[in-house]
C-alpha cells in the first residue's frame, strides 16, 4: 500500500532551496527545482551532514560538509567522498500541499 503524507505547503520551499521535514521515522529533504519537487534522505550517506543545507545547482545538491554531490531526481552519488546513493521518495503536489510517499 502507498501512504502519502502531507509534509508542508508548496510555498514553504523556495525555488532552488530545500526544507528538512520529518516523514514517519525519517528526515527527508524536500527540494524545489523550478516548481518540480524532489525528496531525498536528508542525512548525507558519508557523514553527519544535512543535505537540505547543501548547495543546489543543475538538479544536484552538494553536501555542505565535504562537497560530495548527488543527483536529486535519482539520488545517485556523483562524486567522492560519498560512495552510496541517496534514498529517494516519491513526491506529489495537491491543493498547494507537498505530499511525500512514506512506503
Ligand atoms: Fe557529506 Fe562528507 S558528510 S560528503
Ligand inventory reads: FE2/S2 (inorganic) cluster
Mean pLDDT: 96
Q: Compute the number of helices.
A: 0
The span between the termini is 7 Å
- CATH topology, anyone? Rieske Iron-sulfur Protein
Order of helices and strands: EEEEEEEEEE
Strand content: over 45%
Rounded to an integer, what's the Rg over CA atoms?
A: 13 Å
- State the helicity in percent bands: under 10%
| Biggest sheet character | 4 strands, antiparallel
Number of strands: 10
Per CATH, the architecture is: 3-layer Sandwich
Sheet/helix structural class: mainly beta
Helices and strands in order:
Blueprint (H helix, E strand, L loop, with lengths): L3 E6 L7 E7 L2 E8 L2 E6 L13 E3 L2 E3 L6 E3 L16 E2 L1 E4 L2 E5 L2
Antiparallel strand pairs: 1-10, 2-3, 3-4, 4-8, 5-6, 6-7, 9-10
Bound molecules: FE2/S2 (inorganic) cluster.
Description:
Helix content is 0%, strand content 46%. It has 103 residues and is an all-beta fold. The chain has one domain: Rieske Iron-sulfur Protein (3-layer Sandwich). The strands form 3 sheets. A 4-stranded antiparallel β-sheet has the order 2-3-4-8, with no helix packed on it. The chain has a 3-stranded antiparallel β-sheet with strand order 1-10-9, with no helix packed on it. A 3-stranded antiparallel β-sheet has the order 5-6-7, with no helix packed on it. FE2/S2 (inorganic) cluster binds next to loops. Keywords: 2Fe-2S, Dioxygenase, Iron, Iron-sulfur, Metal-binding, Nitrate assimilation, Oxidoreductase. This is Bifunctional 3-phenylpropionate/cinnamic acid dioxygenase ferredoxin subunit.
Amino acid at each position: 500500500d502507498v501512504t502519502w503524507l502531507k509534509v508542508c505547503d508548496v510555498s514553504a520551499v523556495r525555488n532552488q532551496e530545500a526544507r528538512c521535514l520529518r516523514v514517519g521515522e525519517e528526515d527527508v529533504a524536500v527540494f524545489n527545482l523550478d516548481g518540480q519537487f524532489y525528496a531525498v534522505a536528508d542525512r548525507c550517506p558519508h557523514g553527519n551532514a544535512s543535505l537540505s543545507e547543501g548547495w543546489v545547482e543543475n538538479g544536484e545538491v552538494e553536501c555542505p560538509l565535504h562537497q560530495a554531490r548527488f543527483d536529486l531526481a535519482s539520488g545517485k552519488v556523483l562524486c567522492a567522498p560519498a560512495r552510496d546513493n541517496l534514498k529517494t521518495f516519491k513526491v506529489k503536489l495537491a491543493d498547494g500541499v507537498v505530499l511525500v510517499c512514506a512506503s
